[in-house]
Amino acid sequence: MAEPKENVLMEKLASLCKRRGFIFQSSEIYGGIQGFWDYGPLGAELKRNVKELWWSSMTRMRDDVVGLEATIIMHPAIWRASGHVDTFSDPMCDCLLTKKRFRADQIELQSGNAYHFTGAKDTTSAKEVSEPYAVLLAAGKPPESARKTAAQFYAQRGLQAVELLGERMEKVENSQRFNPENGSLLTPPVPFNLMFKTYVGPTATEADVAYLRPETAQAIFAQFKNVHETSRQKVPFGVAQMGKAFRNEVTPRNYTFRSREFEQMELEFFIKPDEAVEAITGSVTTVPETGHPGEPQPSWGWQAWHHYWVQERVRFYEGIGLSLDTLGFHRQTPAELAHYARACTDILFKFPFSKRDEQGNVAGDELEGIAARSDFDLSQHERSSGKSMGIFDEELRTAFGKLPPEKQTELKDRYYQARLKYLTKSGVPVAEAGAAAQEDADGLAKGQYIPHVIEPSAGVDRLILALLANAFSEVTETDAKGKSETRVVLKFHPRVAPIKVAVLPLLKNKPELAAKARAIFESLRGHMMAFHDEAGSIGRRYARQDEAGTPFCVTVDFETFEGIKDGPQAGVKDTVTIRHRDDGKQERIAASELLTWLLARVR
Ligand code: ATP
Question: Which of 22, 83, 114, 386 has its Cα between 20 and 30 A from that of 536?
């Protein structure tokens, strides 16, 4: 059977990435290690560009966000408070026949006839195995093939001439209990914690256990007070961090999409609870669910902030070349949402491996999740560490004091209910929770609250994969002799392209061309990633740059010295040719204007 088109595309992409030095398998010379990837010279530049663009747009270009760079290993109590120790797990199961491992919740639903066996015996030795087993067959398939698979299963348990026992057939619908590849029954799903464990210090006892962070976000919560106190920011404000995260994924797959070591870019944007906003501004405004809502307003509650951040993130993706039609959105349903979350919108990218529905539409796979997480995270750390995570808001205290008594009661009551819900859901005994919630409600009236948070959380590696898939295109050219050649052009947005400009002397063996090209290259390299290449025909060199995704090639030729031959600019010297990657068009500009021309396009 032919490979599906999308797999062919992924294979081509992976092979290009290896051939051109974007992505290599980690530890390849030792056979690789599953779920780990290295970025080669071009990949490292691409990744650096993406991270710098995120950092700059999230922190330097905003008044209301500051940065953080925390450690990867933190106090293990952080992961107990966040819930990761108890609940950060995926259900895992194994094929009883091949031992292949699956994430139980990701197995495609299957229907058909399941053939169950209570056990088997060896007809030569009378040895018996009483372990039950089953095989699922598509409706209409002969039961013989189920019996053959079952015989293999019992043979693995030491039987030689297998006689199956207690056969029974059952119709099965939408089951995830069988291996989709061979129909074999799977082991029952068991939760598998995704955190990598390690030991701090030399004794390596249970008391020394620590974890590699599975997300960058928790450090932001743990350092919230320090950042708030030192940055002179007032709520609403955000703290951004990017860096490595580690998850021992059950089944790493789809190239770098699901890796075991990856990088995240996360923002925790702290906002006032809606009750505080209402006390200060009179009412909480919501914004339409479509389009960018514009500049943030003091009257925004969590809904408006959540929508704002979804739209800000979409703008970011559009600004680096992922057009809206390549993206998708998934708003988590109430059943999917964590109990403390108010909303979560995933921004998806339509990857070549993303599934199609029956109409052929592709929803896409997650690039980033933007969650409205209430005050859960800071509250958890407050309870767990015993250190206050609340802030004092003078504006709220003044505004609250001026409200009519019935409004004060209404807002306090709403805040009380929200805190009570959080506390009881977190396992605090009812009486204790009631008293604590009452204290929180009284605190609100005095200008105190635990900030709520909106969390846009993106993966660097998934974005790199999206940018590569989005940029990948092939052109077929036929030469004068009728010979066709297909080559790859990576159409990166100039902002993310690993190499921004390649400077090429038209001919290598003309010293004046080579020297001039080298001088131009030297003048550019301090401002952007530039490349100098003199080897091979000019056509070959253009093709090499197209494959690397370089948006502009600058050629130094004879007209640079002798002056332009024809046209309105005839005789003008010291110009260079700029060749555009995507349409091959060329234009001449003065060498002295080159830097400004390029900077306007690559930043
Ligand atoms: P998924 O459901 O795909 O496992 P998630 O919802 O668990 O992802 P989050 O915990 O919200 O992911 O992490 C935020 C972002 O980190 C994701 O949107 C994704 O871009 C990135 N990410 C998460 N897990 C991985 C991984 N194993 N490999 C690469 N990137 C990842």
Answer: 22
Q: How far apart are CA 489 and CA 527, in angstroms?
A: 24
Q: What is the pLDDT of residues 45-59, one digit of tens each?
A: 999 999 999 999 999
Pairing of strands 89-94, 343-349: unpaired
Give the distance from CA 523 to its chain's centroid.
36
pTM of the model as a whole: 0.92
CA–centroid distance, 187 to ligand 1, in Å, is 26
CA of 259 to the centre of ligand 1 (A): 9
Structure token pair of residue 529: 């990633």
What separation in angstroms does the CA of 513 have from each of 503, 516, 532, 560?
Answer: 11, 5, 13, 8
> Is pLDDT above 80 for 1?
no
The gap from C-alpha 193 to its chain's centroid, in whole angstroms, comes to 20
* Structure token digits, residue 86: 């108890």
Burial class (CB in 10 A: 0-12, 13-18, 19+), 289: exposed
Classify 340 as helix, strand or coil: coil
| Ranges 115-119, 223-227, 248-252, 552-556: which has the least confidence | 248-252
pLDDT digits (tens, 9 = 90+) for 533-572: 999 999 999 999 999 999 999 999 999 988 888 888 888 8
Query: 132 phi and psi, to 5 degrees?
Result: -70, 155
Question: Which pLDDT value is given to residue 570?
Answer: 87
Q: Please list the residues that pair with 175 across neighbouring strands.
A: 110
Q: Are 208 and 199 in contact (CB under 8 A)?
A: yes
Q: How far apart are the CA of 36 and the centre of ligand 1, in A?
A: 15
Is the pLDDT at 158 greater than 50? The verdict is: yes
Please identify, by atom number, the ligand 1 atom nearest to the C-alpha of residue 371: 11
Instruction: Please classify residue 332 by burial: count the beta carbons closer than 10 Å to its beta carbon, then call 0-12 exposed, 13-18 middle and 19+ buried.
Output: middle
